[in-house]
Design goal:
The chain has 204 residues and is an alpha+beta fold. Helices cover 28% and strands 18% of the residues. The chain has a 6-stranded antiparallel β-sheet, sandwiched between helices.
């Protein structure tokens, strides 16, 4: 074989080898999976804070204790001190005691209701009636907190005489209403709660 033919064969072999390598590289690139786009993690959102819900008014309205503490206090505030009878002629046979919490405000209702019958009712009424009328609205009051009581006395004719008694502050004891057909007369004059009355109201 001549030298020129040998060189030609070597050159052809080199070209074939180069083409083979190129093809192999091309196939490898084709087989490689395409690069996937990088996902940017979503930034965490701010936590959702619960919406503050105003607390429900304390207590529950009932037939015996239907008024809110706001209504009770409004009735007491509008009375005229020094006006009224010294004693009430009402003859109760039962009493419903509606107790409002010391922290009650606005639309709060009574949280405790108790009923006393017969002698227990008349004994409580005697304590209310025995307190001396006060001519002028009290202006020296303590700052302690305490419950408010609404006393709803009922007689045999289904008349209802209501008193409000404050076991704190100015300790006002006020007849606020007299309901019932044919119930006459003037309400008893405003006065102040006695220690004996506070003690009796605290009994269950």
């Amino acid at each position: 074989m001549s030298a020129s033919r040998t060189r030609g064969l070597i050159g052809a072999s080199i070209v074939v080898a180069v083409l083979g390598i190129t093809a192999a590289c091309g196939n490898e690139d084709a087989a490689s999976p395409a690069a996937q786009p990088t996902e940017t993690p979503a930034s965490p959102s701010a936590p959702t804070l619960p919406t503050a819900t105003p607390p429900d008014p304390s207590g529950t309205p009932s037939m015996d204790c239907p008024e809110t503490i706001a209504s009770v206090r409004a009735a007491v505030d509008k009375v005229t001190w020094g006006k009224g009878t010294a004693k009430s002629a009402f003859n109760p046979v039962s009493v419903t005691i509606c107790q409002y919490d010391a922290m009650a405000t606005g639309q709060s209702y009574a949280t405790v209701k108790t009923t006393r019958m017969a002698k227990q009712a008349t004994d409580l009424f005697a304590l209310v009636n025995s307190a001396q009328p006060v001519a002028k609205k009290p202006n020296i009051c303590t700052k302690e907190l305490g419950p408010t009581y609404v006393l709803r006395f009922t007689d045999n004719d289904r008349g209802v005489l209501s008193y409000t008694a404050e076991a704190y502050g100015c300790r006002r004891l006020v007849a606020t209403s007299l309901e019932g057909q044919g119930k006459p007369g003037e309400l008893a004059s405003p006065r102040q709660v006695s220690p004996e009355l506070v003690k009796s109201l605290g009994l269950r």
